[in-house]
Amino acid sequence: MKKEIITISGRPGAGKSSTADLVAKELGYDRFSSGDFMRKMALDREISLIELSAIAERGRSIDEEIDAEIKKLRGREGTVIDSRLAYHFIPESFKVFLDLSLEISRERVLKDLDKNKLRKMSDKSKNTDEVYAEITRRLESEHKRYKKLYGIEDYTAKQNYDLIVDTNKNNLQEVAEIIVKKYRNWLNN
Q1: Which of 18, 70, 80, 180 has the highest Cβ tally under 10 A?
Q2: Is the pTM of this model over 0.90?
Q3: What residues does 8 pair with on adjacent strands?
């Protein structure tokens, strides 16, 4: 049974948050970001996102807290969820993957450090090499946790999604328009 829920996944810097904002606005839906939720968890603990990920590798409590928030949304239709694993927890959602190379991703994350208060306060990296190293460490940490906790080998595997959008070839407005159009078609078929 299809739900009026869109789950948006992708690597860091792919545009999940900006895209989710625009898609939610276009559809008049609510929005939830697990990345923002995790950054807030790190800020509340006065540690970096990498440190929070390291804690999550050693125990289940961090992931269970994030997962509980996402699972609550399963029953709330009219929601856009920006989360790497929401597609897994809400399989009846319209599942979108925003594709972007890590090389471009690091440039976008570095730019966002100055604008995004949550990212700025939790990520200490100042140059592209540091950002790339931090993204790589975070992805490695997530890969270990997702495999151990959920048996997910690769959340970036294209077969997990209803739609793949290259955010390097399409600007933000185009990405949102593609998602809304494909989502409406998906709902009606």
Answers
A1: 80
A2: no
A3: 82, 96
